[in-house]
Design brief:
About 30% of the residues are buried. This protein is mostly beta strands. It has no helices and eleven strands. About 0% of the residues lie in helices and about 50% in strands. It starts with a strand and ends with a strand.
Length: about 110
């Protein structure tokens, strides 16, 4: 059974940067797309970015140009580099691969 573990969240000032990591167990990592979602307080979970098994990225419009998703198949890890962070990026960020979900990592953008 695949397990996903997110890390890298924290408190950052507006305009700052964070890099989230999603580490996966299992041998099928390289064959699967991996997706980042986020959920802000009182809101529904929102799709943020996807990276395909071939490395092709896709982003929600609100993060285009600020966030970069990447993967290192040798480390079974997907990254979400978040730059120029805004208060509206505050949320718990989750990674998803097929049926597996991580526990989430909190990102708070505040001065």
């Amino acid at each position: 059974q695949v397990q996903l573990v997110e890390s890298g969240g924290g408190l950052v000032q507006p305009g700052g940067s964070l890099r989230l990591s999603c580490a996966a167990s299992g041998s099928t990592f390289s064959l699967n797309a991996v997706v980042w979602y986020r959920q802000a307080p009182g809101k529904q979970r929102e799709w943020v970015a996807t990276i395909g098994s071939n490395g092709t990225p896709n982003y929600v419009d609100s993060v285009k140009g600020r966030f970069t998703i990447s993967r290192d198949n040798a480390k079974n890890t997907v990254y979400l580099q978040m730059n120029s962070l805004k208060p509206e990026d505050t949320a718990v960020y989750y990674c998803n691969m097929h049926l597996a979900w991580g526990q989430g990592t909190q990102v708070t953008v505040s001065s």
